[in-house]
Design a protein that fits this description.
- The chain has ten helices and 61 strands.
- The strands form twelve sheets. It has a nine-stranded antiparallel β-sheet with strand order 1-2-3-4-22-21-23-19-20, covered by helices on one side. Strands 43, 44, 45, 46, 47, 48, 49, 50 and 51 form a nine-stranded antiparallel β-sheet that branches. It has a seven-stranded mixed beta barrel with strand order 11-12-13-16-14-15-17.
């Protein structure tokens, strides 16, 4: 027989030959959906998902019901010994390896986690493998019928006229009484204290311990045992601890080789003499139709139980728990009540919690699998398990069809494809269908190809397949969603709102759920509309923004349930850059003013323009105006002089006109704007009047709006071998140009090609060798905003340091050492996890910046502790001090200190690195970190920038600004900041 592929979705949400179940459970809640399918003669598997109103969550149960017959056999199984542990799935695989078809199986008795010792009795093949005289038990007779009760086994060792009670058989020995061990228990007795062990040989070879019988043995050896004794194959050991009663010890020591010992096992209820399989259970939770309310109920948890009905049917029951959104579980009394609802009059509770497991073999598959969700996340190894095996063989004669929809829970209007496979009369999957398939549904909801379309009315719908007289059916649940949500296909996230530009497209998908259960939807299940003049949307969620600024919402509905997402459409700003004051020339000519390019203060980029002016100063920059040029804007660092800054324009006839930009009654940076006079043909520049002074200018632009674009371009970088591709977009029209872009490899600029039509930057790199490299693309817009994306090209850089082998920072230190940017604490040691000092950080940063330190060797340092600066760090500190990158702190004596030998903090390191960056990068919201308030004010801007650039990140939601930085962390910072 060729293998039949398993359909994962069908394993948990499909049904054949379905039988309706109750719509509500008083014990567990109201039914959301359920299915029952036949898996053998008189044997069904049921799953039911219910809603608990008290818990506002789901409960999910799985249970198998069977009628005892010759077609099936219940068995108890354990691992390689009574105290060995295996998962239920592994036990099932062992049975299947032996040729059995496992219809289903559940975990068995409670057990001692540390030893694997089952609490109750274990019987297999009619042999008592482990005893328990007082606990409840579940037993199976030869015909498959089940009994639940308390065996109350009477275990006796009879010898020399004594009839002595045996405490237990094949249980971990305690300090009281006699114990019997057989080779079913383990390879040894596992005793940990000294005692007396008597090896017994059955008088009849192969005879074993059974309830209702006596096993006659002969003493082979009596030994004083210091601990564990090996259990001989086919023999028994009568054992007692030296901590037990002295008289009992004397009696057992009186035995000698050749003496007779009879082991008798009786039960007041003689039915236990006929069980072929049995397993213990801690609680008899349902007795003669009455729930035992005297038991400690416990919290809601995963549970496993077995119940019996008056007609002889047996129920193997599990309910999952401790998993929000799947199943919260049930208390002991809830399980008892639930089994009573299912028709049981007696029920026993087996082990629960992480042990609760059910396996089953679906009709179209050849082996079993776990069908519930164990709460530990993975199957737990348990002491024993109860299985239901098929006694039937494949017949290859068609018996029924197994119908499996891809989804069992649908929204109205949604579709799902039904498929079908054949089972023979022995309930085995067949290779071929008996003939052509005919699909039908009373509501006409299924097509000739088996495609089911959910009607608009919620309910449960039956789909039937017929092939040459053989049939099968499934029930599909159509539910009205109580929650809808949208997903942006581009980001994979659920949008809370949109701010879009005219013509911008958004691809949305919708989904729905009912009481947290996801429902199959699809385009046909939702109605898409827009509110307001914001654009258009198609039936499959493709939204296109309109051409005008507007506000409104996208609305998606299914039945009476709907969700909306607010949308704002805004025509983007259009900016023309007149001067950004970068480079070597200011881009303006001056009258009555001196112009100087300065590195401080700066609003955008690395430079601003200082203007030392006198009354009547004029800064000339001529630019023809277009229809979109409605405003002139720039940033001004005011001098508080009260003088007037104006913008100069000219009409086509040459007549001049000016517009006031600002009265300079402020200090610090401020954005100022002036409207372009109607009819003006050219922008002429700026004028200053009212007196003398000094101010700084940055980012002079013409625009179609008075506002200011503060959104950075988006850069999406991808690497393929030596090929670099970067998709660059910006919210502002005509804001991108190649002269405001860069492509660097390890901080060094390399040539690239810019295609403005597609918004793509491309380049082919060369000379990379085998080393790791940092590839970075940066793009600036007309308003000075900077966007950046970087990627590491992994390689195998050289490694001169023995302590970097296998270290996470090796890709960074390797390349930086190749370039001479970092050195070790010795020729072969880097000490990556050592905190870096302020002096060594200055040295690494200076080398990374490519500074010629000799140029700064004559700089006088103002620090009171300058003599304490290590010689190797001195010129680097001189350089960074001169450039305003590194600053000291004021001591208690009022003098400045550099503390070169002290560890540098994360905030200090990020501030130094932030000072070397261009201005204009986005700044992250530090409020996302729980310790944001502890970031010093002087560091916030730089920390926010480096977090935004992903050069640094938090740890467990914290920035740890006062924590030291390791040498390895510095290497990563420098490498990723290239």
């Amino acid at each position: 027989m060729k293998p039949i592929l398993r359909r994962a979705a069908a394993l948990v949400l499909c049904a054949a030959l379905l039988i309706p179940t109750a719509l509500a459970s008083d014990a567990l809640g109201s039914t959301i959906y359920d299915y029952t399918l036949d898996i053998c003669d008189g044997t069904t598997l049921t799953r039911e998902v219910m809603w608990s109103a008290s818990k506002s969550d789901l409960r999910t149960e799985n249970y198998v019901t069977y009628t005892p017959s010759g077609s099936i056999s219940p068995v108890v199984s354990y691992g390689t010994s009574v105290v060995s542990k295996q998962s239920v799935a592994d036990m099932a695989k062992s049975l299947e390896t032996d040729g059995h078809r496992v219809l289903s199986g559940i975990n068995g008795d409670y057990f001692v986690m540390a030893t694997g010792d089952p609490l109750g009795l274990v019987v297999t093949d009619g042999v008592l493998r482990s005893s328990a005289s007082y606990l409840q038990a579940l037993g199976f007779l030869e015909d498959g019928s089940a009994i639940i009760g308390t065996p109350n086994l009477d275990l006796k060792a009879n010898f020399k006229g004594y009839s002595l009670k045996i405490a237990d058989i094949n249980k971990i020995r305690t300090n009281t009484g006699f114990y019997i061990f057989t080779d079913d228990f383990a390879s040894t007795t596992r005793n940990t204290q000294a005692g007396v062990d008597v090896i017994l040989t059955p008088n009849t070879p192969g005879e074993e311990l059974k309830i209702g019988s006596t096993l006659s043995c002969t003493v082979e050896q009596v030994m004083e045992a210091a601990g564990a004794t090996t259990i001989p194959q086919g023999k028994l050991i009568l054992s007692i601890s030296n901590q037990s009663g002295e008289w009992l010890q004397e009696v057992i020591r009186s035995l000698a080789p050749g003496d007779s010992v009879d082991i008798s096992i009786t039960a007041p209820d003689t039915r236990w003499e006929d069980v072929t399989y049995a397993v213990g259970g801690l609680y008899w939770i349902l007795k003669d139709g009455v729930v035992d309310t005297s038991l400690s109920d416990g919290a809601a948890a995963p549970r496993t139980a077995v119940g019996t009905k008056p007609n002889g049917e047996v129920v193997f029951y599990t309910i999952d728990g401790r998993q929000a959104g799947h199943s919260v579980g049930a208390t002991i009394q809830m399980v008892a009540q639930r089994l009573k609802e299912l028709g049981c009059t007696n029920a026993i509770l087996l082990d629960g919690g992480g042990s609760t497991t059910m396996v089953s073999t679906y009709p179209d598959y050849g082996s079993s699998s776990i069908i519930n969700k164990p709460s530990d996340g993975t199957p737990r190894a348990v002491s024993n398990a109860v299985f239901l095996l098929s006694n039937l063989s494949p017949t290859n004669q068609p018996g029924s069809l197994y119908v499996t929809p891809k989804s069992l829970t649908l929204l109205p209007g949604a579709t799902t494809q039904c498929t079908v496979s054949a089972m023979d009369t022995g309930w085995y999957p067949m290779d071929e269908l008996p003939g052509e398939i005919t699909w039908s549904s009373p509501e006409g909801a299924v097509s000739a190809s088996g495609l089911f379309t959910a009607p608009q009315t919620p309910g449960v719908y039956t789909v039937t397949a017929e092939s040459s007289g053989v049939t099968g059916s499934t029930r599909i649940h159509v539910l009205q969603a109580d929650t809808l949500y949208l997903t942006d296909e581009a980001t994979g996230k659920r949008p809370s709102s949109y701010s879009l530009t005219p013509g911008q497209k958004v691809n949305l998908s919708a989904a729905g759920s009912y009481r947290t259960i996801d429902l199959t939807g699809g385009d046909s299940a939702f109605q898409w509309t827009v509110e307001g003049d914001i654009g258009t949307i198609t039936d499959d969620g493709q939204f296109t923004a309109g051409l005008n600024s507007a506000t409104g919402a996208i609305r998606v509905a299914s039945g009476d349930t709907a969700v909306t997402v607010p949308v704002t459409v805004k025509a983007p700003g259009q900016y023309t850059l007149l001067a950004d004051f970068e480079g070597d020339t200011p881009g303006l000519t001056a009258q009555n003013a001196a112009l100087t390019l300065n590195a401080d203060p700066v609003k955008y980029g690395t430079q601003s323009l200082r203007v030392d002016y006198r009354d009547g100063a004029r800064l000339t920059r001529t630019q023809d105006l277009t229809q979109r040029d409605r405003y002139v804007s720039l940033w001004v660092y005011g001098d508080g002089s009260g003088n007037l800054l104006s913008a100069a324009f000219a009409y086509e006839d040459g007549t001049s006109v000016s517009q006031s930009l600002a009265t300079l009654n402020f200090t610090g940076w401020k954005k100022v704007s002036a409207a372009v006079p109607d009819g003006a043909a050219t922008f002429q520049g700026l004028t200053l009047s009212g007196g003398s002074g000094a101010l700084w200018l940055d980012q002079l632009v013409l625009a179609n709006e008075s506002g200011w674009d503060s959104t950075a371009p988006t850069v999406a970088l991808s690497l393929s071998g030596t090929n670099v591709t970067a998709r660059i977009t910006d919210a502002s029209q005509n804001a991108l140009s190649a002269d405001r872009m860069s492509l660097t490899v390890d901080g060094q600029a390399v040539p690239f090609t810019w295609d403005a039509g597609s918004g793509t930057l491309t380049a082919t790199l060369s000379g990379l060798g085998s080393s790791s490299h940092q590839i970075t693309v940066t793009a600036g817009d007309a308003c000075g905003n900077l966007g950046r994306d970087a990627a590491m090209r992994s390689g195998t850089s050289s490694n001169p340091f023995e302590d970097m082998e296998g270290h996470w920072a090796l890709p960074y230190t390797g390349r930086l050492s190749e370039l001479g940017i970092l050195q070790g604490v010795s020729s072969t040691t880097f000490a990556p996890d050592r905190n870096i000092t302020r002096g060594d950080f200055a040295l690494m940063t200076a080398r990374w910046l490519g500074l010629n330190l000799e140029d700064y060797a004559g700089v006088d340092l103002p620090y009171a502790d300058a003599d304490d600066i290590p010689s190797w760090d001195y010129t680097a500190i001189q350089a960074l001090h001169t450039l305003g990158i590194l600053e000291g702190s004021t001591g208690s004596d009022g003098q400045p200190y550099i503390h070169a030998r002290s560890s540098i903090t994360r905030a200090q390191a990020m501030t130094i690195l932030g000072r070397v960056l261009e201005k204009g990068y986005p700044q992250a919201a530090l409020s996302d970190f729980s310790d944001a308030a502890s970031v010093p004010a002087w560091a916030k801007e730089h920390v926010a920038t480096l977090v935004s650039l992903e050069v640094v990140g938090g740890s467990n939601g914290q920035l740890r600004p006062s924590a030291p930085v390791t040498r390895a962390e510095v290497a990563k910072m420098l490498f990723t900041l290239w």
